[in-house]
Amino acid sequence: MRFDVVSIFPEVFGPVFSVGVVGRAIAGGRIALAAHDLRDHAPGRHRQVDDEPFGGGPGMVLKPEPIFAAVEAIRPLNPGPVVLLEPWGERLTQRLAQDLARQPGLIIVCGRYEGIDDRVRQALAAREISIGDYVLSGGEIPAMVLIDAVARLVPGVVGDEASLAQDAFGEGGGGYPQFTRPAEWRGLRVPEVLLSGDHGAIARWRLEHARGGVADSQLMTRIGATNGTRP
Ligand code: SAM
Predict the structure, then answer these.
(1) Is the CB of 121 under 6 A from ligand 1?
(2) What would the pLDDT profile of 156-177 be if each residue is shown by its tens digit?
């Protein structure tokens, strides 16, 4: 899968995506990530990407021409939808990340200042996505959140795919408490069941303690299945 990001601060993406599972996936060629400087697509000596809002008001707005030029330059490399990060957009959820991970790529446009000229939304964007009901100063951090959430769902990015199923909101009912050695630390003991070696009991305990996204009916079915009974 290929991610192309358009930003006035493309340099911030390199450090974040040189580490961890996504960094390894990029180094190994499973994921391609290119951050493009919006100013490279702005005409003139001053490479101006913003201007005052029509109708007045504070701040500046990102001009449409450089964004159209950037997306048109990227398009031959990336057939995926154009996504705008906007605070009022569709909320990013695990379900949305799963849908987007089936795309061949994403072209992500990061806003700044007072936002993006609305003609970009009208003519280029397939969707607007928000990472939550608060306002950040730019779309770069939301773009990183989106890329990380989607990239780890691309097959082969996370080495052991079982770990995706056991994530919070994953299929396996994840988000259960995790422990490692030592078995006791400052009077806090690891639950006995996890030390028991009884895999059925461990699976039931984990389902009962899943904190992320397993519907009650699904949970009861799975507990029944690990008990060898039907609820
Ligand atoms: N004028 C906008 C408003 O009325 O909310 C705020 C613009 S904000 C200062 C600048 C840019 O940050 C936005 O265009 C968007 O790209 C990004 N941004 C801010 N908060 C965001 C959020 N919660 N989710 C996604 N993007 C966000």
Answers:
(1) no
(2) 999 888 778 778 787 666 889 9
Domain residue ranges in the chain: 2-151, 170-222
Q: To which CATH superfamily is domain 170-222 assigned?
A: tRNA(m1g37)methyltransferase, domain 2 (1.10.1270.20)
d(C-alpha 40, C-alpha 119), whole Å: 20
pLDDT at 49: 98
Structure tokens given for 204: 């039931």
Is residue 112 in contact with ligand 1, taking CB distance under 6 Å? yes
Measured between alpha carbons, how far is residue 97 from residues 101, 131, 162 in Å? 6, 11, 17
CATH superfamily of 2-151: SPOUT methyltransferase, trefoil knot domain (3.40.1280.10)
Residues with a known catalytic role: 87, 114, 152, 167
- The finding on whether 125 has its CB within 6 A of some atom of ligand 1 is no
Whether residue 115 has its Cβ less than 6 Å from ligand 1: yes
Q: Which of 88, 135, 144, 146 to mutate to test the pocket of ligand 1 (most atoms within 8 A of CB)?
A: 135
Q: Where are the alpha helices (DSSP H) in 46-124?
A: 64-74, 94-100, 118-123
41-90 tens-digit pLDDT: 999 999 999 999 999 999 999 999 999 999 999 999 999 999 999 999 99
Q: What is the dihedral sign for C-alpha 132, 137, 141, 142?
A: positive
